[in-house]
Amino acid sequence: MSNSIPQATSYQEDSFLICGLGSLGQHCVLSLKKFGVKIVAIELIKPKIWEIPHIEDFIDELIFADCRHIKILQQANIKNCRAALIVTTSEQVNIETALAIRKLNPKTRLVVRSAQDNLNILLEEQLGNFIAYEPTQLPTKAFALAALGSNIKGFFSLDSKPLQIIQRPLTTNDPWCYTRYLYELNTRTRLVLSYHHQHPNFSCSFYQWNPETRLQPGDLITYIEVKDLLTSNFSKSMMSSSSRVKSQPIFSQLKQILYQWKKKEGKYLRGAALMCGAIVLTLLFLGTIVIHGYYPESTFFSAFSATVILLLGGYSDLFGEFEQMEKIPHWLQLFSLALTLSGTAFVGVLYALLTELLLSAKFQFVKRRPPIPEQNHIIIIGLGRVGREVARLLHEFKQALLGISFKVDAASEMMLNIPFMSGHLQNILPQANLETAKSIVVVTDDEILNLEVALTAKKLNPDCHLVIRTAGHQLGQHLLQILPHAQIVGTYEVAAEVFAGAAFGENIITLFRLNNQTILVTEYCIESEDTLNGLLLADIAYGYGVVPILYQKPPQSSIFMPHEELRLSVGDHLVVLATINGLKSIEKGQLALDKKIWKIQIQNAATSEAIFEGANVLSRISGCSLSVARNVMKRLPTIFPVPLYHHQGLRLVRELRKLRVNSYLTSLERNNG
Asked: Going from the N-terminus, what domains does the chain have, and what CATH number goes with each?
């Protein structure tokens, strides 16, 4: 998992190879170029028109050839490539290229486009330093969350605990209004990510607010929180099924009783079938012995056949003539009649049970899907791999769904038990209750079809949450102009950021969309030469613009929302929320020192104990040595000489205030001015 190169010279010497310059490959070029690295690209045939204009200007060396050939890889100087992003549209080509690269360079990081999960695991074991992604699967959670239209903007699990990203608009009666400051919202299970005051002008970075702001109605708070259940904060509409059970317990009890009765009934029917079968076999054996005993010249098979005929209601077939009956003893006639009557009863029961079994199996096989929802439902248009995964996620959230496919697909037909429609666009949409739908998710593979469906849906229901999948770079930008309130998710644009982050060796756990940009949940394992090694979490958070959410020093247990004064060392694990710019800053070791411009003016301390404890707090939060902190506290009033970030400085002032040490924050720029 790893990490950054400490020296700028070695960083510049590393090159990154991209094999395949389709839509994903071109977006990978843009994402990697943000890191300022040298890019070598291989494409089979030069296209007449590039999807991203002037993409060639971002590539240092462009080769048109087959990337699987050893000579071509040598021409691309694969021995000096830090990582290879193999993203052609052919999985066979991708795997062959990965094997060829590993043969030439055992250290190159391999980031491969592949959907073969089992094969990817085997290749990772054999090749090492290998990771594979399926780009169309990466943004599925973003589609599902956008369709919910709820306050939950992301969800994932770390260390077997679920986490949510929640966006909470504050109303007048919200308990946080007027009584809480922003910094008070941060706890061991919750951390504020962004704050917006009464306007939707979203910032592009973390920590762009004053933590000592008092909350007011109209504010919009986004925070991450460790939850016990992912659905605990869902709206009433999302939990309508469970709330209905609570409000009508009698129906829940009746349902349980019927289920238990049906379960017991099944046991009784099986018992009855076994009993009838045993009786029929007993009668068959007894009848064969009796008939063969009375007619010793007959064979056992003929006696067996006669008994079977009697059990199947064939009494008249054997005793049809009156003259013949006078020759047969009365007891044998009565015995045969008893066999016929018994057989009619018990064999009839077996017939009935078998018929019921066959009919129930048939009805289960042709089980009708639920009816089309009438209102407040989510319509998923396009049930390919992306659509099915989005449907599965939304189905887990207990949402009313309707799946629509314009192609007859067996995989779509056999998917989750949700209402399903297929056929032509003009015939299906009028029947889908678009006017009353809550959200419409358009995720077909045809971008023009997605555009047509999106415009039709917006015309029929202007208030719905519209989520559109795009692959092209320009189309997404144009759609934002004509559909400004729609959620436009560029599949390859989002996936490229994951591929780029993985190329530097980082473990990208998952991603989500927040404030119209991609947030990567990234794990670091600290090594001796990392740019993170030896830093306080405060420096990492404010200097690199990322949010630490989990810290672990093996073999100790994980700490969620860790304190800023923790210092990283070799072997530590750290999980952060970061944009692609945050990953770039960490990779290049570019701390935002221009923001570390705040100092503490310490006035006085109430007691000698306050002086002693104040020095401890200064050392712990700022990271300076304890001797420096004690010397400062001996010369009050004075200015603490260690520069701090704004949030870090305000926290230090609050902690000193608790110890009855008077201080305030001052800016270096203000002092210089």
From this structure: 8-137 (3.40.50.720), 151-234 (3.30.70.1450), 262-365 (1.10.287), 378-490 (3.40.50.720), 494-588 (3.30.70.1450), 596-672 (3.30.1390.10)
